[in-house]
Amino acid sequence: MSVPVQVSPHSRDRPRWTDAGLAPAALLAGLPVLAAVWKQGPCLENGWGGTEPFWRYCYSDLAVGVQTAGAEAGLTAYLRGDVPLDQPPLTGSLVSLIAGLGPGSGALSTQRWVLAVWAVLAVVGLVLMAWWVRTSPGRPDPLHVVLAPVAALTILLSPDLLGVVLATGGLWAWGRRRPALAGALLGAGFMARTYPVLLLVAVALLAWRTGRERELPRLGGGALAAVAVIGVPLLALAPENVTRAWSTWLETPAGLGSVWYIPTLAGHPWSTSVVTTVAVLGMLVAVVLVGLLVLGAPRVPRLGAVALVGVAVVLVTGTAFPVQSSLWLVPLVAMAGLRWRDHLLWALAEGVHFVAVWLYLGGLQDANRSLPPGWYSFALLLRVSAVVYLAVRAWQTATSTFPPEVGSSHLASPPRPSEERTSDAESAHLESPSSI
Which tens digits make up the pLDDT trace of 110-125? Predict the structure, then answer.
């Protein structure tokens, strides 16, 4: 007599690597990294000095920062304050650690070593993000992460990947009802970049709407614990390493990629104080829009869509919008459940701006090969418009009165009993309550 096997109703939300969506994603994760390494080829051979990296499209803030800050001295020197990396504390510590472990001597050797290690970490990071995206409630498409053209363009330009991975893990953990882990990952992400603060706001508002207020102390406690574990020792050893990135931000005028840089291109730059004030106002606008979306949507919005709206607003209103910052949008596009058409239109605009910014920078030192400021302004506005388009599409998806399509991302919790419930098919993906 056979005994029927009990299958958990939530087992469908725990895919294995052999599932159709995960196995290809894991195998394809190396493609954007290989493309990024190939793009770095001329600089890996000849170095990142002079204007040649601009004409070869291989300039990298990561490689240049390692040399200018003397990061080859290692983590110990960084903790003494002797390595002035213009990075938040967690990314500065990691880059210094990697650079100090380099097997060779000389600046170029160290730069090659850091890029090689970062390429390996990038593959691991993409695999992790693909896993987290696919195993989030709603099971979004992880190919949006591992086949993102923007990842190939940006993943070796800066250490932003560390913050992106931590923030993505935090959103995943909240969707899986692990508030303390979500807080810890987002708190660590804040020590790598500031954008996770906005994600914490979005999570807190969604917690209020969906009746998960009791989990907020664990979310906040996890975030504070992560910040304390990373920040307190660094404050005691080298406080300037903790504050350098943010103090530099306050003192820096409008930079490349920002709409506030267009007056500079026209020969009438805005003062640093004005640009900083407008950027802070942009952050406040992002918080207000996140609140309106979370509390005003007819259905409980997806956390991925809410996060995409908030981060996009901060990016396009910031003092600078460097090429590498677009990497933050890659996992959010996947988690928001946007279509490939939207993704590729955005990627096309990013590609145009990618070429234009290097031609413009190279032309600052070689007028015979320069890209006119007017053309760079066009590329800049095209890119900003594409990011705004993503935010609009995410808003429309989040406020739709129809249930999300299969494969879309519903990272919010079930709504309060007084609110409209999700469809049965969608609710079947929601994880049972648990916490760490």
Answer: 999 999 999 999 999 9
Helical (H) or strand (E) element with 38: helix 30-39
Q: What is the residue-wise DSSP string for 124-170?
A: HHHHHHHHHHHTSTT---THHHHT-HHHHHHTTTSTHHHHHHHHHHH
Instruction: Kindly give, in sequence order, each residue whose CB lies less than 8 Å from that of residue 405, ignoring residues fewer than 6 positions away.
Output: 337
Choose among 190, 157, 196, 156: nearest CA to 331.
196
| Cβ atoms of 220 and 198 closer than 8 Å | no
Question: Is 84 contained in some domain?
Answer: yes
pLDDT digits (tens, 9 = 90+) for 122-178: 999 999 999 999 887 677 888 999 999 999 999 999 999 999 999 999 999 999 999
* Residue 230 belongs to some domain of the structure: yes
Distance CA 36, CA 45 (A): 15
Q: Does residue 433 fall inside a structural domain? A: no
Q: Number of structural domains, the chain?
A: 1
Residue 378 falls inside a structural domain? yes
Predicted structure pTM score: 0.88
Domain range for residue 378? 18-400
> Which ranges in 50-136 belong to alpha helices (H)?
52-55, 61-68, 75-79, 89-100, 107-134
- DSSP code string of 384-406: HHHHHHHHHHHHHHHT-SSPPPT
